């Protein structure tokens, strides 16, 4: 199994920390977010880790070289010419990801105590094309699931915007955690090109493909995308 760490974002929410470095190299209690993500995904003892880069991408490459890739098989997916969003990033890395079974995708600015092996077991049991880790937490945008935890739509509770892809009145809102497992068969279903969102892809595919939500109830999950969130994490987590 391979893991893909999404680390190419501009980190605009983390400004001023990202004024001279990528968010992947912002530190939480002296350890970069990238190192923490690498440690986390390797709980699955992955065969290879792919990291995409864009904003200050040279710094990420230099950092990994100095760290000798943490003595792990690690490959860069280079988006320095164009930032491709989550879906475009996966598509660009297709040749690195499609020939080794399901792969884990992990956002670099997520801090989580999720049991990745339990997530993988759930994914294997359900045999869907993708499994998204979700939680019950307050946010503006939600993914919507039916009682079988099949992706059924998307809602913005602030604006009232809604996109439902399954006719079911028993729908529940969950917040996406930035952690997911994807089957390589998804590549044959992608018609999008260039820059596009994985969530938009999932909403299109959910009409015909099984995309599941895994209800993560582990103790810790934090979004480290804003300075105040990073400060809160520093007090709670070492």
Given the helix and strand composition, which structural class is it?
Answer: alpha/beta
Question: Alpha-carbon distance between the termini?
Answer: 28 Å
CATH homology group: Spore Coat Polysaccharide Biosynthesis Protein SpsA, Chain A
CATH class: Alpha Beta
Shape: globular
Low-confidence runs of at least 5 consecutive residues: none
Largest sheet, strands/sense/barrel: 10 strands, mixed
CATH topology: Spore Coat Polysaccharide Biosynthesis Protein SpsA, Chain A
- Share in β-strands: 25-35%
CATH architecture: Alpha-Beta Complex
Q: Please count the beta strands (DSSP E, at least 2 residues each).
A: 14
H-E order: EEEHEHEHHEEHEEEEEHEEH
What is the rounded Rg?
A: 17 Å
- In DSSP terms (H or I, runs of 4 or more residues), the helix count works out at 7
Mean pLDDT: 95
Number of domains as seen in the coordinates: 1
Please bin the fraction of helical residues.
25-40%
């Amino acid at each position: 199994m391979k893991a893909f760490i999404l680390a190419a974002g501009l980190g605009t929410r983390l400004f001023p920390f990202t004024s001279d470095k990528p968010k992947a190299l912002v530190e939480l209690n002296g350890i970069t977010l990238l190192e923490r993500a690498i440690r986390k995904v390797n709980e699955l003892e992955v065969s290879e880790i792919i990291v995409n880069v864009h904003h200050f991408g040279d710094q990420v490459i230099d950092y990994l070289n100095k760290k000798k890739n943490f003595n792990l098989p690690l490959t860069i997916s280079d988006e320095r010419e164009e930032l491709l969003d989550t879906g475009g990033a996966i598509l660009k890395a297709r040749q690195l990801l499609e020939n080794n079974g399901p792969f884990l995708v992990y956002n670099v600015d997520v801090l989580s105590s999720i049991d990745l092996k339990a997530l993988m077991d759930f994914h294997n049991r359900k045999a869907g094309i993708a499994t998204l880790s979700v939680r019950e937490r307050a946010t503006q945008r939600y993914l919507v699931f039916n009682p079988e935890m099949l992706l059924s739509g998307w809602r913005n509770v602030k604006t009232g915007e809604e996109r439902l892809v399954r006719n079911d009145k028993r729908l529940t809102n969950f917040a996406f955690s930035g952690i997911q497992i994807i089957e390589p068969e998804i590549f044959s279903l992608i018609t999008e090109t260039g820059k596009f969102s994985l969530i938009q892809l999932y909403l299109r595919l959910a009409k015909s493909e099984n995309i599941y939500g895994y209800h993560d109830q582990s103790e810790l999950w934090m979004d480290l995308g804003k300075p105040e969130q990073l400060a809160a994490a520093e007090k709670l987590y070492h």
